[in-house]
Structure formats: structure tokens, C-alpha cells
Write a structure and sequence with these properties.
single chain; alpha+beta; 15-stranded antiparallel beta sheet; three-stranded antiparallel beta sheet; 13 helices; 28 strands; globular
Length: about 600
Amino acid sequence: MHTDIEDYALIGDQQTAALVSTDGSVDWLCLPRFDSAACFARILGDEDNGHWRIAPKGAERCTRRAYRPDTLVLDTEWETEDGSVRVTDLMPQRDRAPDLVRVVEGLSGEVTLHSVLRLRFDYGSVVPWVRRSDGHRVAVAGPDSAWLRSEPEVRSWGEDFGTHSEFTVAAGEKVAFVLTWHPSHEPRPPLIDPFVALEHSVEDWREWAARCCYDGPHRDAVVRSLITLKALTYQPTGGIVAAPTTSLPEEPGGVRNWDYRFCWLRDSTLTLGAMLSAGYLEEAEAWRDWLLRAVAGSPDDLQIMYGLAGERRLPEFELPWLSGFGGAAPVRIGNDAVNQLQLDVYGEVMDSLSLARQAGMHPRPQMWELQCALMDFLATAWREPDEGLWEVRGGRRQFVHSKVMTWVALDRAVRTLEDHPELGGGDLEGWRALREEVHREVCEKGYDPERNTFTQSYGSRELDASLLLIPRVGFLPADDPRVVGTVDAIGAELTRDGLVRRYSTEGEPVDGLPGSEGTFLVCSFWYADALHATGRTKEARELFERLVALTNDVGLLAEEYDPAAGRQLGNFPQAFSHVGLVNTALALFGEEGAG
């Protein structure tokens, strides 16, 4: 079993995604959507929880692997005593049904390969009934059905509740396998040509990647991050999932295991900015429209996250039959943090819609009316304690970042009405006065003059990496001594081997959870941004170089990193980490990298 999260690569069709390991095994795949039940869940259990491996007989880890440049098409190669072979994995853009395509190609000599497919629906708990039909293997259980075929057809047989195939390829020969899912009560969808699908997928991804207007240092890493964000976008609605996985642990063997297959409002402004700056207006507008649909309704019902289409109910429960990645249990489905109060999301929404206006996106009906309603609610609710940006489960507090983002919401409302008086409505003078009041309170109650730093919450001595965003959102200028002091304090107290933790987990941590976690990658990108903004550009670029070097062999980042063990932690790949990489590259090299 794999013990390193970075052993995996991502493929997907912009409605769901699969993780492929270095030994040629697809160990995670939810069908038909990112948030559907997994049919391959080996990554959170063992082989009996579902996987599909194609590899040379007797071989283990591959010799090399890489994405085809500027695509999400993965090539995995083995060199054996008998010759060399390549397995190409992809999920083509779907017409009706999701397809997983695996093309085996002989490169030299003559290699015998073995394929074993173990479908296990409902997160590895349901063994389907498998039969033959028209030369295909058909698996059915409850609402799920999957068809396996090969082209040209190779012999397959059932063994140990799996479907096995063994075949030989010589140099230049190809064999394609296609696994297609559909609801079991519907007829089989039309067959795709796997070789044409491969050709079109390469063309489509390269055409999309060519739209990137960044041409500075580490362009490959920036493009890979943008492709990853595109892959994590649920194309029918424009929503972007935080990650395609659940319960990959923040601490080896620990309990900090969460389901990230949903769309967080906290990501909105930074994601929107990254897309706009890189030249992807269409994707930015789709994300903006998803945001407007999701938050529609009563302002006091605003959630911190939603489902792919804006669903509100995401109940959290555990799957006891899965042992967890590396034994890290429990495995959780759903996320109870959906019920938390996080006041910073009001600032994120207002900032996102302000940024959308500045970018020239076509305003949507009732957008300003919605913003005014959000401000009316925030005018009284802002004084309440909340769970904060990091969704702590240790009780509500007066988090400084939440108050700063309250100021952001007010500031963006004021600026919007000043720049667009034709919008009408709103309480311009009241918002201005409240903006000053919030700013004054944060500087009085959220700042420690003895240590010259802002703190995690009012009256606390703890620090928080979210304070690095104070200059970015415009609350204070980067050269303000309080900002410089805060950046210095975080560098001294929250870094571990030069990388940044979200907050301290020693003693009685604010999150109310046992154990610890790794350094948070997006916070480390924020630290690089803050170093640059405060005039320490050389240090910022050195940190950025190091962070880019932490990507795995195919350019992907998880949520966290453990410097001591030299391994990635948390759900993978993490959208927020890749947003951080893009935004920091644009901040550090934007002028010289503009295309």
C-alpha cells in the first residue's frame, strides 16, 4: 500500500477525478461526480475496497511518469528485462457518461502485462454482480453500473472478486481499456473510440493551456496549477472543489481527516484573482455565477461551503469499514463545518463581486440587491464571535481575521457605491462610519503593542497565518510598522523549517482537536507574498523557489507539508495550494511575466 500522498497523480473530466499511483493503480474515483460515492477506495483502505491496476507482470513502481505537456493526460512507463511499455491514463470530456480510458502501448521488446479491476461501489463496501454482455464485463449493484471493454479485445476472467486480464504488447502495439459508468436503470451509453478520445483530450487541454498569459519564471508550475484548478472545476455549474478527496490525513495516523469535495466561499477572491490575472475570464465568470447562485437567499443563512451545484446539506458521518490512509481514521463523508458561523465569508463574497465588477464582467440581475442584503446583516452580526477562517471546533472567538474581512466587506460596498452611484440604494454614510469603527476596534483589540503584532483573536497572545493577508486586502499598507511586526512575528513563531503553520497546535489548541498538523502550503505562499510586499523580495523569491520544489514529480501539491518527514499531508491535490502558487508567481514576477 502507498504511504505517501505524493505517490499519486490526478486525471479527470471536470465533473469527477481519479488518483493514479506510481504502480499503475487507480486507487480513488467517485462516480459520477466529485462528491459521489467512490467505486475505487483503496487509498483509504486496501485492495478489497476497490482499485484498477495495469502494469507489467511482476513489476512494482514505474520507471518514470509525466503528464503530456500542458495536458491532464498521464503517461506512466516501465522498463523491464523484456522491454518497455507505457500506460496512458485519461478521463475524456464526457458527452453523457463518464469514461476512464487506459491505453497500453509497447515501446520496445515484448512485455506481458496484467490488469486487475476490483469495482467496489459505495466507498468500497458493495461488491457488484459481474456478467458478460457483447464481449464486455458488466458490473451492477443497486443504482450503479459499469462496463469494461478492451480494444482490441483481450481475454478476461473472474478471480477473487475481480476481473483479470493478461496480454502481451510488442513495440508499436496498443491495447485500450475503457471503463464506463451509468445509472443501472438506464441502457448502456454510446461507446467512445479510446484512441480518438486520447487525441482530442491532448488537443483540448493544450488549446486551453495556451490561453495562459503568464510567461515568467516557473511557467510550467503555474500552468500545471491552472490545469489542476480547471480539473477541480465542476463544469456544469462552475463550482470548484477544494480537493477531489476526503480524509487524507493532516497528521500521519491522526484524526484530522476531513471531506474536501465541496466548494468553499473562503477560496473565492483568491481563486477569482488567479483566473483573471492568468487570462481565464470565462472560468472566472463561471465561478462568479456559481457564487451568486449558491449564496442566494437570506443573508443570515449564508454558509461557508456548498455542494457542487450549491447544495446546502452536507451532513457529516463516518465509514467504519475503511481503515483510512496509513491507518488514519476515521474516514469522514460530508462536513459539519457547513453549519459554522464564519463572518469572514461575507468579506470574501463582497470582495469577489467587487473584483468581478472591476474586471468588466457583465453584472447579473439582483447582484447589488444581494450585496446590500449581506451588508444589512453584517451591520449587526459583525460583533458576534465565530469559528473563523480555519473552521475551529474548539468554540467561537473574536477572530481578528474575521473582523478584518468584515472591514473588507464594508470597504468594498463603499467603494462600489462611490464608483457606481447609479446602483442606488445602500447606506453609504452608515457603511463609511461602520468601516471606521471596525478598523478602530481591530487596531485596538486585535493588536499587541508590546510585541508589535496583530493576534489570532481579541485578547489572545497566539498568532495566526491569516494575519498575513492584512496588507493584501488593503486593511493596512504593507509598510505600516504593525504589518511589518506581524510578518516578523509569524516568521519567528509560526514557521517550521521556513514553512508556515496556520496556528499553534501546542497546549490547548484553538481548534479543539488532538494531535498536530503539518505546515500549511497556502500560508507559506501568503508569507512569500507578505515578504515581497514588505520589501524582502529576495527572501520571498527564495521561499517561492522552495515551495515549487515541494510539488511531487508531476507538479501537484496537497494541503500541507511535513518538513521533518519530507512528505505531503492532507487532501490532494489541494485547490487552495495551487491558487497560492499562481498568485505568488504573479505577485513576484507579474510585470516580467505578463504575456
